[in-house]
Specification:
Distance between the termini of chain B: 10 Å
Number of strands of chain A: 0
Shape of chain B: elongated
Order of helices and strands of chain B: HHHH
Largest sheet of chain B: none
Number of domains of chain B: 1
Number of helices of chain B: 4
Distance between the termini of chain A: 60 Å
Number of helices of chain A: 7
Helix content of chain A: over 70%
Radius of gyration of chain B: 18 Å
Number of strands of chain B: 0
Strand content of chain A: under 5%
Radius of gyration of chain A: 24 Å
Oligomer: heterodimer
Shape of chain A: extended
Chain lengths: 185, 145
Amino acid sequence: MEIILSIVIVFMILGAIYALYAKDLLSALIACGIVGYGLVICFLLLRAPDLAIVQIVVETITLVIMVAVVLNSTREELKEKAVVKVDGVSYVHQRYIVNVILVVVFALFLLYFFKESIYTLNHFGEHVTRMSTAYIESAAEQTGSANLVTGVLFDFRGYDTLGEATILFTAVIGILTILRAKAKK
Amino acid sequence: MNGMTPIVKKVTQLIVGLIFLYGIYIITHGHLTPGGGFAGGAVVAGSFILLVLAYGSDILKLKKREEGSSVVESLGIFLFIVLAFAAIFIGTKVFFANYLPKGVIGELISAGVIPLYNIAVGIEVAAALFTIFLALVIYKEEVLK
């Protein structure tokens, strides 16, 4: 399963990189869609159907809205002028070398600690926290909900859900305030 | 906003009820099967968005619908908070406590107050997404033309 997951994630990364460099806004959007729907496949592979349902619906709605926006706009990015010129060639050369050396040093540094830390981790899919085992064992009896995710969302973490709903409410208020064309008398 | 071709209209007419019912199913069975208020609300909002996209509507009707949906959204989150606050006065007197009888695990009417939370959040999410969509459409029609 990890191999399939890695392939999907590589596709998502390629889509994200293409979205940055695409000339056409519409194709950049479709490349963004690759990221979203790849995430749906990831959630399904990791056995999280709740998240997959939310992700696929929200991704579709946002994609439709963004396509509608892009079709009404200029569709192509405006061409910008090239990067600012620097005086001497040797100067550019020096900075180039220093930058590359810095990047390599930092990459090796991070790789070393990544390698050190990855050996102490549990295997893929075996969680570490004791809290989640307590949830999995007792959520069904304590909340009476057969779907553990809903039980946790609306019982153990009710404040969290209240915050999420409030965020959505605030977002709608903000959008209505910004997009109101004329002030009401 | 103009409607689309007759093919799109006919397919929408056939399919939009099913999408709406599926959203309602996800919301009401949130404590039994995967899904819940957020997912089902998004599906319901999608069915409304599909209707507006396929059939189009003149701007006066859209404005009325936007007012209605924003009121419904506020009512949804108000219902959620009222349900949560009711726990302070009933039973164990703790905010967000489950004060209704839990019933048998796996039946439709079980899990106490959780299905009611699901329904409130579903109403809120559906109305919120539809309101955002309508606000964008109205802005485009009024300002950009």
